[in-house]
């Protein structure tokens, strides 16, 4: 066994030495291509989208730590690496190797979180920054806030942990060809005249490979705003939605992307492609109706005070929209108001605020056909949950131990729209209660579709939740927008209904 390990170490050492000492000469001056300025790209009308994250690491499901195969259907691929390597061919193969570091170092930091959303993480980062700490918002698997580790740090109110890890190797991309192995350094720029295929998936024309803050790599696509929207609308609201609803979605998706383009600043790109940002998939064929909606609104964004708004949206609000502070630990935005999502006559019959369990039960009993978006599958829902289900979620989130039991479940605070903003879970651990706040409720108890619900205890181990809606409930309800469009409302009227104080402006204001 020792002989096998000795041979393996000798082999890895040889590979590392070979890669480290391979030299390639090029006269290419690539500074302009490799210089990434995130704010400048937004002003040019481009997003940098993190298509595949954590490449080369344990969570790399795309290349499985082995290989990225990039193929040009037409013409050639061009690769430029920061260490001066230039490569041109019809196909590029990049794989990952772990190269030992000569002088290993220990990485230390204080980690706050996880947070259910970027918004809540950002609020905590701002609070710590106000106390004089240098903060970083990160997303290794969940949203976290980092501050540098120091021996004499005080105790913090918020849950935190010390992260300490010895870094003794570096995940390094290498370019493999028939006759050579070339070590690459980031950023790495890859481009082609036509769309290219990566591991069998069709993407665009301009890409970066960027090293992230976790030692792994991200495949980043550089894409114009409207091309990006062509890959968002079909998956966020559906390509067969009415044209006016698609127009409204195009405007808010563009606006949201611009406002939130700082989410991945630390890793040198703007947005991801999951529900933590906006769902995006490179379209194989662009739907004609989607394209028409994008073109009709291509220079428009929603603004407040001549600045893009944080244009939140969701699947269904259950008949009443939420203000921002009901859903996240963030400031209130004046353009988000809780409104009854229906006709003027419905608003005369139903009044806000909804402050009690009985008020919300009466609201949920009201004829749902009078609301916009009532045909959504989760507009009204019921769910039985057991103490065991709750316990499993609490253990998974390290809030209780395996020997603890759940005794009771109560809503102890509601927002203006009736949504639960504080949920108390009583346990037998020294009569300890766990209080989940706002977006943490659905992060921990992720089987709950929304925070708009009432609680009825059926027995000692079982509760019935009765609720409405799917998602956070802030801003535009996609199911509501679809129904409004079917009723003849224009995209301007739809946007004014959900963002009452916001104004439509041309995107040129970003350059002012």
Automatic annotation (TrEMBL):
InterPro entries: Bact_Sporulation_Assoc, SpoIID/LytB, SpoIID/LytB_N. GO terms for cellular component: outer membrane-bounded periplasmic space. Pfam families: SpoIID. It comes from the Bacteria. Residues 215-304 form the Sporulation stage II protein D amidase enhancer LytB N-terminal domain. GO terms for biological process: sporulation resulting in formation of a cellular spore. NCBIfam families: SpoIID_LytB. This is Possible amidase enhancer. It comes from Prochlorococcus marinus (strain MIT 9215).
């Amino acid at each position: 066994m020792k002989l096998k390990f000795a041979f393996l170490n000798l082999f890895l050492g040889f590979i590392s030495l070979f890669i480290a000492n391979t030299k390639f000469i090029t006269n290419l001056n690539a500074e302009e291509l490799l210089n990434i300025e995130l704010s400048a790209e937004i002003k040019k009308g481009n997003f940098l989208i993190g298509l595949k994250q954590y490449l080369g690491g344990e969570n790399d499901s795309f290349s499985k730590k082995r290989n990225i195969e990039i193929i040009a259907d037409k013409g050639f691929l061009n690769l430029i690496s920061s260490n001066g390597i230039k490569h041109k061919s019809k196909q590029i193969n990049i794989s990952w190797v772990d190269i030992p570091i000569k002088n290993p170092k220990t990485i230390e930091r204080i980690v706050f979180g996880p947070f259910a959303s970027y918004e809540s993480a950002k609020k905590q980062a701002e609070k710590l920054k106000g106390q004089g700490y240098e903060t970083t918002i990160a997303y290794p698997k969940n949203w976290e806030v980092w501050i540098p580790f120091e021996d004499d740090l005080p105790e913090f109110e918020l849950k935190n942990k010390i992260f300490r890890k010895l870094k003794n190797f570096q995940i390094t991309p290498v370019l493999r060809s028939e006759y050579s192995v070339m070590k690459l350094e980031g950023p790495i720029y890859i481009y082609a005249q036509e769309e290219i295929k990566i591991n069998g998936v069709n993407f665009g024309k301009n890409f970066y490979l960027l090293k992230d803050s976790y030692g792994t790599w991200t495949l980043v696509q550089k894409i114009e705003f409207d091309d990006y929207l062509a890959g968002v609308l079909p998956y966020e609201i559906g390509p067969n939605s009415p044209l006016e609803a698609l127009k409204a979605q195009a405007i808010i998706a563009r606006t949201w992307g611009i406002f939130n383009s700082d989410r991945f600043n630390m890793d040198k790109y703007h947005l991801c492609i999951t529900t933590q940002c906006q769902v995006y998939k490179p379209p194989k064929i662009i739907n004609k109706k989607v394209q028409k909606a994008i073109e009709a609104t291509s220079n428009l964004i929603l603004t407040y005070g001549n600045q893009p708004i944080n244009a939140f949206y969701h699947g269904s609000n259950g008949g009443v929209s939420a203000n921002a502070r009901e859903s996240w630990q963030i400031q209130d935005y004046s353009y988000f108001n809780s409104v009854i999502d229906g006709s003027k006559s419905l608003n005369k019959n139903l009044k806000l605020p909804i402050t009690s369990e009985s008020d919300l039960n009466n609201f949920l009993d009201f004829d749902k056909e009078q609301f916009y978006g009532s045909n959504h599958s989760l507009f009204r829902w019921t769910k039985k949950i057991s103490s065991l289900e709750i316990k499993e979620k609490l253990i998974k989130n390290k809030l209780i131990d395996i020997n603890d039991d759940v005794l009771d479940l109560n809503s102890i605070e509601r927002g203006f729209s009736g949504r639960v903003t504080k949920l108390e879970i009583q346990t037998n651990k020294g009569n300890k209660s766990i209080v989940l706040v706002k977006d943490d409720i659905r992060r921990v108890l992720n089987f709950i579709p929304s925070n708009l619900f009432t609680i009825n205890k059926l027995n000692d181990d079982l509760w019935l939740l009765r609720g409405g809606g799917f998602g956070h409930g802030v801003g535009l309800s996609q199911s509501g927008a679809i129904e409004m469009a079917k009723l003849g409302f224009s995209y301007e009227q739809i946007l004014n209904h959900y963002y009452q104080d916001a104004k439509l402006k041309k995107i040129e204001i970003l350059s002012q």
